[in-house]
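User: quick one, sequence for these tokens?
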């Protein structure tokens, strides 16, 4: 069952606009921008391009605003128990949409159809916006007139099916770029205390989803890749420096030398000390 509380399209706000609701709302808020905007995700504020969508679930903190210029958006506040809403795969994280005109038309239709339900004088209608007074419920159609309700529900269903499709298409492009960037950071800094949780937060996705797409992309798990790059660096330091094995272990992200030696032997087949001796012997033959 769906119930709309607020819906609007083509809203425009001044360049200093900020929307800050730390405790969120008891219902869903869907926002689709028509201009560049600032969004706060995991405590960090970043600028996102025009035609960005975000679904805030009930009681989730909300922060977004203008990015130095007038800010525009479409928005929808509503309740729903439909699985395509409750199980939305990327809540409270902005993502790009590729067909802004389609969404504009959907929000326009939702506003028009919702206005048919707002027959009470306690409901105000103005410039593409339907608002519910805080102390009154939305008074629906007259008995026997079910069409407007059904149309609104179908429009919400279409809206979310389209959002799902847009999310899947943009995720593929976005994650390819972001995964490559993440792997470059790991290879350049394998000594960092990398964890699945940390890597997932960098991409704003769940840890389980990260592990799935990382293996699909690189044919190795993300943590095995961290080990791969740590040992690659260790082999380089063993071959071309005179640093002790304990020093090398620390430089490669190991706080425990024994753990480093055990993992080195497990993956390389010999101990770090034997690896260094073999490299030294090869150099002497040249």
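Assistant:
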């Amino acid at each position: 069952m769906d119930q709309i509380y607020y819906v609007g399209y083509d809203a425009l706000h001044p360049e200093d606009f900020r929307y800050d609701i730390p405790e969120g709302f008891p219902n869903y808020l869907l926002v689709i921008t028509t201009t560049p905007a600032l969004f706060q995700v995991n405590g960090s504020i970043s600028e996102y391009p025009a035609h960005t969508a975000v679904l805030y679930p009930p009681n989730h903190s909300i922060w977004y605003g203008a990015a130095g210029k007038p800010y525009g958006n479409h928005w929808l506040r509503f309740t729903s128990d439909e699985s395509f809403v409750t199980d939305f795969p990327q809540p409270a994280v902005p993502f790009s949409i590729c067909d802004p005109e389609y969404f504009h038309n959907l929000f326009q239709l939702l506003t028009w159809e919702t206005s048919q339900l707002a027959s009470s004088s306690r409901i105000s209608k103005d410039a593409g916006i339907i608002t519910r007074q805080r102390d009154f419920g939305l008074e629906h159609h007259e008995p026997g007139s079910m069409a407007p309700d059904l149309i609104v529900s179908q429009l919400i269903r279409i809206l979310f099916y389209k959002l799902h499709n847009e999310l899947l298409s943009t995720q593929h492009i976005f994650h390819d770029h972001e995964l490559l960037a993440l792997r470059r950071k790991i290879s350049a800094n394998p000594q960092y205390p990398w964890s699945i949780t940390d890597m997932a937060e960098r991409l704003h996705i769940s840890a389980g989803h990260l592990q799935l797409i990382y293996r699909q992309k690189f044919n190795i798990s993300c943590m095995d890749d961290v080990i791969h790059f740590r040992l690659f660096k260790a082999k380089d330091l063993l071959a071309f420096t005179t640093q002790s094995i304990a020093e090398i272990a620390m430089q490669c992200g190991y706080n425990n030398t024994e753990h480093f030696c055990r993992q080195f032997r497990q993956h390389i087949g010999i101990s770090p000390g034997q690896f260094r001796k073999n490299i030294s012997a090869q150099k002497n033959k040249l």
